[in-house]
Write a structure and sequence with these properties.
This protein has six helices and six strands. With 170 residues, it is of the alpha/beta class.
């Protein structure tokens, strides 16, 4: 079973990203369980989106204690994330303009940085990084397929469909 955590700050789109990722895995025929934690439920406070993905029905109903993969929308949240949800085998993709070496002081983690804001701005998406980060995360994780993710993004993007697809594909 693949257990994934997506964390961001309220208003950044982490919940939407979690829902899109869950929908993509489901479209690939996987069983999916998704739930969220909103903390203070205010803009700017940390929010978590948890996903479980498997080839068979998921019966587990507890929280995710150690994620196999983490997508972090805000690098200032990374220290708390790794101490609470990661181990040395966890793949961590973080939205940051800083190089991965910047985060080596946190420990021996598999951290990959993606300039989601740069990709979003290049594709006329402003500071909306969902598609850019989801495409990068799927590429690094090796699943779900980029084609299926693009299909879900195209079906669900309320505006700027082509820009979202371009950001997802970078």
């Amino acid at each position: 079973m693949l257990e994934i955590l997506i964390q961001g700050r309220g208003g950044q789109g982490a919940q939407t990203a979690g829902n899109l990722l869950a929908r993509t895995f489901f479209a690939e025929g996987k069983y999916v369980q998704t739930f969220a934690s909103y903390g203070g439920a205010r803009r700017g406070t940390p929010v978590n989106s948890f996903l479980r993905v498997d080839d068979q029905p998921i019966r587990r109903r507890c929280s995710i204690e150690r994620a196999a993969a983490i997508l972090c929308f805000d690098d200032s949240l990374l220290p708390g994330l790794v101490s609470q949800f990661a181990d040395s085998d966890t793949l961590i993709v973080v939205n940051s303009r800083r190089p991965a070496e910047t985060f080596r002081s946190l420990g021996d983690y598999k951290i990959i940085t993606i300039d989601g804001i740069g990709v979003a701005q290049k594709n006329d998406m402003g500071r909306i990084v969902n598609s850019a980060l989801l495409g990068a995360f799927a590429g690094v994780l090796g699943q779900p397929s980029i084609d299926k993710l693009n299909q879900v993004v195209a079906e669900t993007a309320p505006v700027k469909k082509q820009e979202n697809l371009a950001a997802c594909g970078e």
